[in-house]
Design a protein that fits this description.
two-stranded antiparallel sheet; 4 strands; elongated; 10 helices
Length: 222
Amino acid sequence: MKKLILALCLALSSSVVFAGAGGGCGELPKCDQAPVDLRNKESLQHGAQLFMSYCSGCHSAKYLRYERMAQDLDIDPKLVEKYLMFAADKIGDPIDSKVNLKDQAKWFGNAPPDLSLETRFRSPDWVYTYLLNFYPDDKRPWGVNNRVFKDVGMPHVLDPLEQQLGPEDFEAAVGDLVNFMTYMAEPSRVTRENMGVWVLLFLALLMVPVYLLNKEFWKDVK
């Protein structure tokens, strides 16, 4: 009985620790909190649009397929094929920039990494803060630097979007982008969490007959 309760406590505590994990934020005292809500389909759909428009030209996300994205985010596959597939022929293909890595290394100093698991590697808060903290720097090759990742080789690809929007709208847009990237890192997360609730409820109910059975076994032992 005690072991079962301990197992439940450990399962809950480990999930909390994982959710709060994250690295430092460069020159900043701490990272801003990313507005991650994997049940917000509108945010995820907007984030998918932003990722395909501003990120997929250089970065791949090979662990996610267009078809899976369309299914999970409730996007009509025909719309995905028409507006979001810039470097793929079939909706069953993974998200791949199809740009030569050696050429990218020459342009940027290093080849842009695959972003499939970036929010799990860095944390959503880190990625969110990073994207919001580019600033002009004439000494850098692309004319920008970053407070979170000093002397980064990546240009400020979201600058056109930032110029179009006010600060609040731009932060909201970046939040949607990071929300999508968080989904991208673990597409089955919502399903797993839903299943986890039912598993914990089942275990909680199972404790009743287990306790009664244990009591029955030991009632004659003095």
